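pls design
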């Protein structure tokens, strides 16, 4: 049995390796995944396939070296908060981006039930234009 914080840690470790299958290993079939308004993948996506198609595939397609650099995890039991930075180069413009970000995870029965992202979308948009 993995703790909630270990599940989130495992997601980030898989992300660092570009392993979407492992990233989605603990995602609930009913997950609600919210990317902030103004972000390239903005919206709320329901289900693991929608998240993979509308978030991870888009970021991989449109950005070079896109990554999340984790700086801290806050264990709130069923809610985990991650703080870090996004990094990458927007493929269409060649502009680099670095933006602070917070992720709020809600876990239930050892599954990621919900995710919400908070970031400085202006910095992301500046790289895209």
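designed seq:
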């Amino acid at each position: 049995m993995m703790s909630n914080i270990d599940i989130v840690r495992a997601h980030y470790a898989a992300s660092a390796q570009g392993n979407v299958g492992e990233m989605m290993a603990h995602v609930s079939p009913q997950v609600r995944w919210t990317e902030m308004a103004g972000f390239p993948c903005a919206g709320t996506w329901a289900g693991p396939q929608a998240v993979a198609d509308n978030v991870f595939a888009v970021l991989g397609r449109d950005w070079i070296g896109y990554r999340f650099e984790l700086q801290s995890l806050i264990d709130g039991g069923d809610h985990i908060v991650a703080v870090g930075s996004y990094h990458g180069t927007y493929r269409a413009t060649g502009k680099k981006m670095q933006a602070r970000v917070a992720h709020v995870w809600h876990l239930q029965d050892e599954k990621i039930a919900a995710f919400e992202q908070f970031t400085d979308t202006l910095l992301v948009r500046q790289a895209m234009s």
